[in-house]
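Posted in: Structural Biology > Protein-Ligand Complexes

Title: Requesting predicted complex, nicotinamide-adenine-dinucleotide in pocket

I'd be grateful if someone could produce the 3D structure tokens for the following input. Sequence and ligand are given below.
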Amino acid sequence: MSGVSTPGSGSDVVHTINSIGMGRLVGKNAVVTGAAGGIGLETCILFAKEGANVLMADISAPALEKAAAKLKQLVPSAHKVHVQVCDVSKEESVKAAVDHLDAWGGLDIMFNNAGIMHADDADAIDTPEKIWDLTQAINVKGVWFGCKHAVLALRKHNKARGSIINTASVVALVGSATPQLAYTASKGAVLALTRELAIVHAREGFRFNALCPAPLNTPLLQDWLGDDKPKRLRREIHFPSGRFGEAIEQAQAVLFLASDEASFVNGQDFVVDGGMTKAYVTPE
Ligand code: NAD
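-- Reply #1 --
Done. Output follows.
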């Protein structure tokens, strides 16, 4: 089988996107979980560029420090950027992150983005129960806790509007013959709970949307694929664009969903996948 053509590289896209304008989140306070990693960090950078105050929350303290230093270097004009170690599978930890914003006037935007895809996650037969439980604890319960404390904070501060964005995945929408069953089930749950909360809270002005990224050029997936060429091609052949997505392309979608420009966008499975889930055969 021949390789896949790559008409516009990821780095061209990153360069173009980095030059887009500023100011869309002025006066907003945001919590981002999984802030030290790919999508989370790019989103924090973008939020800060657009004028938001940002709490970067992540389970890894050293990674957080490094990520915050990068943000401050790239966005010297950033307003408040704080870091907080947070394990999203622990309710008290999530509550503490959200409550940190009380001193700023309360939360406006919650990006429940932290997630894991465990190397031992497999099919129905081979997935160990403890991997199933760990995956649901972070990917599902963590999102629930984030939604719960975001709603409580929005109410506490009498906010007329709020935006909650939960990271799901395209695997919640299409089946994969390379199964990671616990992960797939967890992302399906994220879609379902996001949709329901969108309807429950619509008249309070609180919007809930789920982000569905395609396979990305971030450590979560790339570390797992390594330089295994057949394993990579197994995926790349299905990409109409011929390439993995970039974290910043997801961050741009999150920015839109977080901003008031998306005021009538609610309850959506917001798919950012270069057309992957709409493809039958892809260009040679
Ligand atoms: P990443 O691994 O680069 O970043 C994830 C971050 O979450 C890391 O910084 C990690 O320390 C943090 N984290 C892990 N467990 C945590 C916990 N219990 N509490 C708080 N933080 C925790 O991954 P990424 O690619 O940026 O993924 C972000 C989200 O996007 C995840 O929910 C992932 O499932 C989803 N996603 C990723 C891809 C992809 O191909 N990378 C595709 C679809 C969906």
